[in-house]
From TrEMBL:
Transmembrane segments: none annotated. Residues 7-120 form the Response regulatory domain. GO terms for molecular function: DNA binding. It comes from the Bacteria. It comes from Streptomyces doudnae. SMART domains: REC (SM00448), Trans_reg_C (SM00862). This is Response regulator transcription factor. Residues 132-229 form the OmpR/PhoB-type domain.
């Protein structure tokens, strides 16, 4: 018997939207729990510890982004995907500041399932991980067993997507990695609009966290991609 690909907590106060999301995710063998409020979501997450949370940004008793922060503080490995009717750059950057993906309304249900699947593919660990030697680049060290990062001996707190992006850059050493390759390997996107800024946004997050502990590490080849100095 095959196991479910993951457990998803859907937090959406519109019953019709919640039903569509639930039916589609269950069709693709996800286990699904639903909540319509922040309070319900926190209680469900405490009892069941889902692998991913699909969060509406605007909820009747609070903000989905604040809920995401609280869920992540309780369960650091939890993958967060935001649903929002707002598509301004400020809103998107705010959602990606600590989440793993965002989807704007109205959405294509197949895209939602694909995004959740992709996020779990890059963030979910297996039950038992083999011991692996750390990845190293200069004063940077990535522990692939604990998914922790240190620079110059100091711990760096990264989200699962930030970790996946940094690991891919480290694995490519000093090579410049094109943006479309990052989208395919880190975000599992095959057909992303050329105006998408998700890579640039996450590169800025990594720079802010890594450059606080040493000289600039991530380089930009304008019009091409990114690499490590």
């Amino acid at each position: 018997m095959t196991t479910a690909p993951g457990t998803v907590l859907v937090v959406e106060d519109e019953p019709s939207i919640a039903d569509v999301l639930t039916i589609a995710l269950r069709y693709h063998r996800f286990e699904v729990m639903t909540a319509g409020t922040v309070r319900e979501a926190l209680a469900l997450a405490e009892r069941t510890r889902p692998d991913a949370a699909l969060l509406d940004v605007m909820l009747p008793d609070g903000d989905g982004r604040a809920l995401g922060r609280e869920l992540r503080s309780r369960q650091p490995e939890l993958a967060l995907v935001f649903l929002t009717a707002r598509d301004s750059p400020a809103e998107i950057v705010g959602a990606l500041g600590f989440g793993d993906d965002y989807i704007t309304k109205p959405f294509n249900i197949d895209e939602v399932v694909a995004r959740v699947t992709a996020v779990l593919r890059r963030t979910r660990t297996s039950d038992v991980l083999p011991q692996r030697p750390p990845l190293r680049y200069g004063d940077l060290e990535l522990d692939e067993t604990t998914y922790s990062v240190r620079r110059a001996g100091r711990s760096v707190e990264l989200t699962p997507t930030e970790y996946a992006l940094l690991r891919f850059l480290v694995r490519n050493g000093g090579r410049v990695v094109p943006k479309d390759q990052l989208l395919r390997h880190v975000w599992q996107y095959e057909h992303t609009p050329p105006e998408s800024t998700v890579v640039e946004t996450y590169i800025s997050y990594l720079r802010r966290k890594l450059d606080a502990l040493g000289p600039p590490l991530i380089t930009t080849r304008r019009g091409v991609g990114y690499g490590l100095a």
